[in-house]
Amino acid sequence: MVESITTIITTLGFPSVDAFIGALFLVLAVVAVIVVISTIKPVLDMFPYTYPNARVRARSGRLFTDKDFSEIVEADNIEEVKNYLRGVPDYAKYIDQYPLEKALDAQLAESYDLVARITPDNSKEVFKFLLKKWDIRNIKSIIIAKQAGLNLDETLNLLVPFGTLSDKLDTLIEAETVTEVLNGLEGTEYPKILEDAIPLYNETGLLLPLESAMDNYLLENLLRSSATPEDDNTLLLHNYVGTMVDVANIKIILRAKADDLKYDDIEFYMISDGYQIREWKLKELMEAEDVAGVVSGLEGTSYAPMLSDAMTEYSETRSMSSFEKALDSHVFKTGKTISLKNQFGIGPMIGFLNKKEKEIRNLKIIARGKREEGYSTAMIKEMLI
Questions:
Q1: For the whole model, what pTM was predicted?
Q2: What is the rounded distance in angstroms from the CA atom of residue 114 to the CA atom of residue 357?
């Protein structure tokens, strides 16, 4: 028996039984290492998120519940809404310092700033780039103010005290015209971004090309910076950012078709290579005859079911709000799904920002409803996302 085993081992090319046993142990060791690595890698991927997730979970626990929103909606006027927020530490420090909408935006910006500071290195670039949304928001607010002829105080009330352009804001605010604001951006990344949009602005006097160029710059770079996923965490982050890009594109196309605009009118405003809606599909949607054609062109995507339902409402009201609410809800649902699917990695951070965006959006809806005439409590509740 022993001789038979020795013969088999020799036939396999091993000079002796000891050599065979040594090789066998080496193979088993390699297999064991592979098993250990495959087992602990998910743990190692999650480890950098332990502290950040503890921070955002504490913040998430302070977000408003459905019960809280029911109480806020029942407020008799805008002052009661502000009084409610004065009792919430995250908002109290801003409510008496700024107008209400600016206070809400400041709290949202603070939340983004927190996540950008504490996120692990493999996702830091995306969250840091997200902070540019406040620079872009402030630039857009200033050019809108100049176009509308607002004074210095009125312009200041539109600005959010976050972002990287703090040393430029005074110069931009003091500019007399939109053109002077654009000239004041020299030395930043924005002149290059706006170089194709400025001729369109000069030709039409419309701010839309300038605003769209900055919005697209933000979304395109967010998509690009998350486009090479290192692990499940960054893959999910790319999914979330990509959904925002697709939704932005679909909104523009739907509005354009409602206004009977053609392909050449829309192309400048698109993010050319989306996420689920790739470039060829975008071209097909831009060439659709009308809103119904866009909706039918999305068959086979995750956007089709919700837009089909919204199409029914649009057919009755001719209001784009049904589409916009459906698309915004889809972004929020995507963020919620990721947060539940990836509770020990990036999920809680995406979930927190997603919920905070939704909270701020709903508070602005309530504030508008309480400030303007003609909105009943039931109507405001129906508008909430």
A1: 0.82
A2: 14
